[in-house]
Design brief:
Oligomer: single chain
CATH superfamily: YVTN repeat-like/Quinoprotein amine dehydrogenase
CATH topology: Methylamine Dehydrogenase, Chain H
Number of domains: 1
Low-confidence stretches: 2-10, 14-26
CATH class: Mainly Beta
Largest sheet: 5 strands, mixed
Strand order of the largest sheet: 1-18-17-16-15
Number of strands: 21
Strand content: over 45%
Helix content: 10-25%
Number of helices: 1
Length: 245
């Protein structure tokens, strides 16, 4: 009888230990906050960084303009472009940006020297036109482009440089997907979730590696450097910086 009681106690203790161990692994880490800056941009969405690493770009789904920012959120230049419902931006080739139009499911290649853009319709299916392309980023190592579909369904789509679809991956680690950035040094993707309030480090096939909590309302653009993570808030019209883990 005593042996049976000892076994039950041991089994119960082991179960509790396993549950606590699983919980510790499942708990999301929190990024270390550095600073936040108010930016004079209405409903900023998407974030990109130039090749020198000293200038940021964002777009506005309110004004459909491009904004060149300092690293502390000061507006250095406002650039007109022909686009509607802009939700994402990425640096591309020399003096060119990629802009994402959500509802039209279109990527615009915008030439900052000429002020002109060329439109490229992306062919894929989604259930809600208001939950379309929410982010774009350029993989300079393979010269491919990644876009994310916000939800219904959440998807990571890899494009060739001619904007034809190379591969499509289902995303399943968040309720929505609101921003994306390709990190050249690690060959990984960083994907934002507005609804979950998380920054997610992922493989190039959209598999989750690590998730970090953030306290930002409507996080809709992300840039990752060697030391910092920059995030733009649509609702707060702010630029946030965090220490890179």
């Amino acid at each position: 009888m005593l042996k049976n009681i000892s076994f039950i106690i041991f089994r119960g203790t082991a179960t509790i230990f396993i549950v606590l161990l699983i919980a510790s692994f499942c708990k999301k880490k929190t990024l270390e906050y550095v600073a936040s800056y108010k930016i004079k941009v209405k409903e900023p969405s998407g974030l990109a960084i130039n090749h020198s690493g000293n200038v940021l770009y964002t777009v506005s789904d309110k004004t459909s303009k491009i904004y060149k920012l300092s690293m502390i959120g000061g507006v250095m230049e406002t650039i007109d472009c022909e686009g509607n419902n802009l939700e994402g931006v990425s640096t591309f080739t020399s003096n060119k940006l990629l802009l994402a139009e959500e509802g039209a499911k279109t990527i615009i290649v915008f030439d900052m020297e000429t002020g002109k853009g060329s439109n490229h319709k992306i062919k894929y299916k989604n259930k809600d036109k208001n939950s379309g392309i929410e982010g774009v980023t350029f993989d300079s190592n393979s010269e491919t482009i990644f876009i994310i579909n916000e939800k219904k369904p959440g998807k990571l789509i890899r494009l060739r440089k001619d904007f034809s679809v190379l591969a499509t991956y289902d995303l399943d680690f968040a309720d929505d997907y609101s921003g994306i950035f390709y990190e050249n040094s690690s060959n990984l993707l960083w994907i934002l979730s507005d609804q979950d309030k998380t920054v997610n480090k992922c493989t190039l096939k959209g598999k989750l590696i690590e998730s970090y909590k953030i306290d930002i309302k409507q996080a809709e653009g992300i840039v990752v450097t060697n030391n910092y993570i920059y995030i733009v808030s649509d609702a707060e019209e702010k630029l946030y910086s965090y220490k890179k883990p």
